[in-house]
Write a structure and sequence with these properties.
With 402 residues, this protein is an alpha/beta fold. It has two domains: 271 residues, Aldolase class I (TIM Barrel, Alpha-Beta Barrel), CATH 3.20.20.70; 92 residues, no CATH class. The chain is built from 15 helices and twelve strands. α3 links the parallel β2 and β3. The two termini are 36 Å apart. Bound molecules: 3-methyl-2-oxobutanoic acid and zinc ion.
Length: 402
């Protein structure tokens, strides 16, 4: 792969789906996999084949049906996991097995109860086994960011010598800062024989809110694959959010001049699709896909945006697929239309509150030809500030709540 291209590795269906509130049915996983392919992800981690029969069946079906991206299954560095993963991806156009084994002393001692030497041997043996099934093997030293650096380099070197084609350096517990995450990539590139022959990959968790920043720092330090999830779902505080990385690469192409395959205008639709299938959506103030990401409430901001969106918007909503300028209502619209649009926007109003909102709406509609979503959001916000709309709470899963 060209050094100037970033591959997007989506793990919404694996690291994302395994986290609380995010499980999906077989059918939902397949639908989302098709959408992720349409979005342009390069590698789709479809599940953890040995984890359950459901995961195995979903990976198998995705491997058969979704042909554009590489399809990966996760596997622990164990024979039975690798055999199961190999079986699950065998019908894929381009199968990948993703083998992981912890490398930090704390994981080796308390979780695996093995020493460094044994871990080294196991990693090499299992990567070689995975290579006997597929040409494309990714290896992850779990908890890489808390692993002794010299041992990490040895560990990664052993996996490369055994045939790994991608080396992923996960910040499993979201511990790293951008400086030390980038430094780890530089150490591996400088000190591990064969590191120049493999793709280095990022995998960041968001426990300190740094997952995307760490990902970008690693790209600067030579990573050319980024692992991420839609809406940033994932274990605990989540994984690096795909849409945020993609938007950063677009908006700050001056600092990150890398090509990639994503169609950014599909970001929001895919984010919505995921939200509709799991039990929560992104916070309203979530970057790129949150309900308020392109809402302007302050008068000064609104005025600026109306004269020139670039005054307060660093990307257009349309560029990431957020629908805009939906001229939903006008002075001829009735109470019912208002209630249903407010509901779509996330506000469920009592009959009394709807009366207040409708009066304000008709006054506005008299002055203004077209009432946009933003006008309605501002109208509700204004009345909430003055405490006369008490029940206008964003509805979970609505456009605003998500
Ligand atoms: O966070 C992590 O370390 C993982 C690995 C399995 C790559 O998800
Ligand atoms: Zn993870």
């Amino acid at each position: 792969m060209s050094q100037d291209r970033i591959a997007f590795f989506d793990t919404t269906l694996r690291d994302g789906e395994q986290s609380p509130g995010c499980s999906m049915t077989h059918h939902e996983k397949l639908e989302l996999a098709h959408s992720l392919a349409g979005l342009g992800v390069d590698i789709l981690e479809a599940g953890f084949a040995i984890a359950s029969d459901g995961d195995f069946a979903a990976i198998t079906a995705i491997a058969e049906e979704v042909r554009e991206p590489k399809i990966a299954s996760l596997a622990r560095a164990r024979r039975e996991d690798i055999e199961r993963a190999a079986k699950a991806v065998e019908r894929a156009a381009r199968p990948r097995i993703h083998v992981f084994l912890a490398s930090s002393d704390i994981h080796l001692e308390y979780k695996l109860k093995i020493g460094r030497e044994e871990a080294l041997e196991q990693a090499a043996e299992m990567v070689a086994l995975a290579r006997s099934y597929v040409d494309d093997v990714e290896f992850s030293p779990e908890d890489a960011t808390r692993t002794d650096r010299e041992f990490l380099c040895q560990f990664v070197g052993a996996a490369i010598a055994a045939g790994a084609t991608t080396i992923n350096l996960p910040d499993t517990v979201g511990y790293a800062t951008p400086e030390d995450y980038a430094d780890m990539f530089r150490s591996v590139r400088e000190n591990v024989p064969g590191a120049d022959r493999v793709i280095l990959s990022t995998h960041c968790h968001n426990d300190l809110g740094l997952a995307v920043a760490n990902t970008l720092a690693a790209i600067r330090a030579g990573a050319r694959q980024v692992e991420c999830t839609i809406n940033g779902i994932g274990e605990r505080a989540g994984n690096a959010a795909l849409e945020e990385i993609a938007a950063a690469l677009r908006v700050r192409a001056d600092a990150y001049p890398y090509a990639h395959n994503l169609k950014l205008e599909k970001l929001y639709p895919v984010s919505r699709q995921l939200t509709e299938r799991i039990s929560f959506g992104p916070a309203p103030n979530k970057a790129v896909v949150g309900g308020n990401a392109f809402a302007h409430e302050a008068g000064i901001h609104q005025h600026g945006v109306l004269s020139n969106p670039l005054t307060y918007e660093i990307m257009t909503p349309a560029s990431v697929g957020v629908p805009t300028n939906r001229m939903v209502l006008g002075k001829h619209s009735g109470r019912h239309a208002l209630r249903s649009r407010l509901h779509e926007l996330g506000y469920r109003l009592s009959a009394a509150d709807l009366d207040i909102a409708y009066r304000a709406f008709t006054e506005l509609a008299d002055r203004k030809k077209a009432i946009y979503d933003l006008d309605l959001i501002n109208l509700v916000a204004h009345h909430q500030r003055h405490e006369d709309l008490i029940s206008a709470e964003p509805v979970a899963g609505s456009e605003l709540a998500s």
